[in-house]
Amino acid sequence: MMRSLVEEWKHDCDLNGLLGDVGSLMEELFDGENGIKLMDATATFCQHQQHALDTLRQRCKKEKDDQLSRFLMEAESNPLCRKLQLKDMLPVEMQRLVKYPLLLETIAKYTQEPSEEQTKILNSVNSAKRILSAVNTAKRNAENLRRLEELQKRLVTTPYDRENFGNDFNSLNLTHYKLVHDGPLTWRYSRNKMIELHVVLLENVLILLTKTGDGSKLLLKVQVPCFDSLSVFYNVTDLA
């Protein structure tokens, strides 16, 4: 429908560059079956967008003259790319999703009120926001899962298993949980001793890990509080 309307707009001189009412067109794009298709497609694309960008930047930084770099240079020289590189094109979909509600709200602001046209546009605003919210959720979940996969590769439970016979955490799989937050933490173990930890807060589990000397591994160890002083956890940003 949109393509046919655009073609009609291009060839109809009587329109004088004005398309007219767009409410029905926007409803068809953002609502109903088409809205679901748009949401699914954009969520699938955008949830891996940042990872793809990071991987592309790292690859191009390391290999300046490999097959991929040569292919990208040739493809990006095509006039259809408008001098944009692949790393410039990948974020476009998410940027457009963010702008759709703002654009529609502006159109509604300058549409006759009240009117059927304005109602349709406002309905499209809500649909566009719903799609954006779903895409943001999919993106956040994918990034959290990728982070859990990274932590899982670095996780070592042997010290805990050795000290707690019968409590085998070797099969602990972080990817089965929902990540809430992870980051460095400083524990004041006693008056004169601070322990640097890495905390992983999952939806129903709090895991305290100790970094190895080179920081490549995260050890699950028993941490026994010292009760001769108040034991307090600090986020490193609070200690700055």
TrEMBL record:
It comes from the Eukaryota. Pfam families: PH_16, RhoGEF. GO terms for molecular function: G protein-coupled receptor binding; guanyl-nucleotide exchange factor activity. It is found in: Cytoplasm. GO terms for cellular component: cytoplasm. Residues 1-138 form the DH domain. Signal peptide: none annotated. InterPro entries: DBL_dom_sf, DH_dom, PH-like_dom_sf, PH_16. This is DH domain-containing protein. Keywords: Cytoplasm, Phosphoprotein. Gene3D superfamilies: Dbl homology (DH) domain, Pleckstrin-homology domain (PH domain)/Phosphotyrosine-binding domain (PTB). PROSITE patterns: DH_2. GO terms for biological process: G protein-coupled receptor signaling pathway.
